[in-house]
Amino acid sequence: MSVAFSTSEETTSYAVPELLEPISTLDDIDIRHIRYFLAVVRCGSVSAAAAELNVSQPSLSQQIIRLEQRVGFCLFERKPRGVEVTSAGLAFLKGVEHIPHAVRAAIVAASPHRNTITIGICSGISYPTISDVSEMIRKSIISEGSWCDMPRFQLKSISSSSQGASLRLGDIDIGIVRIPLTDPSLTMVPFNVEELGVLMAAGHPLAEFNALSWADLRGQRLLWGNSSDDQEYSRALLMAFRHRGWDPMLENVDIHRPELTIHALNHALRDTVAVYPRSSFQSSPDVQWRPLAESPVTETLAFAAVTGTRYATLIDHLADNI
């Protein structure tokens, strides 16, 4: 069988025998191989997984090859866009997907006062909101009283749709997600609800009004990021717009950071707007934000953690102080 991984410039192929000699020991497999395998499964391609793991694509490809040689069977098959997990790979996935989280849980159990909490942050969150989140968690830790030392916080940018897997794998401890987000394995605690308004370039014709109606938006294009980042939220948002009489043409661009949104609005067609809470763009002379005067749509952020973990207990405790 021939398996190939695609890069942006070329396709690198390697041959894997139909039947490899199975390993007689687990000594040649370490946690890194498991993490790499799970990342490729989660991302659907080696190049995307390499970017997430912050390793080179050739290096990741070689590690996957070595893992396949050590387990004795092919884990992935090449497809036109990315890779697909083989039936053997799916069986392997079922057996190993809990390992990173189990290892991290064991470390926490052995050292309950670990000094780092990794927080996943979905795209488009303003710095003041991130600062508020950190402060709320600090207060909850103090109030809960089970942590001897105040941990430091490590932030990781990751989409709402990907946070469930990252939480279960132990890549992050607490997530900040947009809801709705359906995941029965997670405990979620809403903490911030904001009305969405219309963001536009400073010279946009609608900027002359102090507030807008949904009728004003008819015919306006909507600057739209990658809907796979927050799939359920994106679907709910578009449904809410259509229910209010606005069915916009979507302009798909990378707007996962505020500065990218500002740049895109100022280089887009004149009839292009974006939709954000006001807190995301409080002080930029290049854009204008206007509220919607009737039937506004809201954005809800929530803390998320795997149910049954000490982090779920922490955010449950945090809910009492919101």
From TrEMBL:
Domain HTH lysR-type: 29-86
Gene Ontology CC annotation, any one: protein-DNA complex
Listed GO MF terms: DNA binding; DNA-binding transcription factor activity
Pfam families reported in the protein's UniProt record: HTH_1 (PF00126), LysR_substrate (PF03466)
PROSITE patterns: HTH_LYSR
Gene3D superfamilies cross-referenced by the UniProt entry: Periplasmic binding protein-like II (3.40.190.10), Winged helix-like DNA-binding domain superfamily/Winged helix DNA-binding domain (1.10.10.10)
Keywords: DNA-binding, Transcription, Transcription regulation
Signal peptide bounds: none
Family: Belongs to the LysR transcriptional regulatory family.
Protein name: DNA-binding transcriptional regulator, LysR family
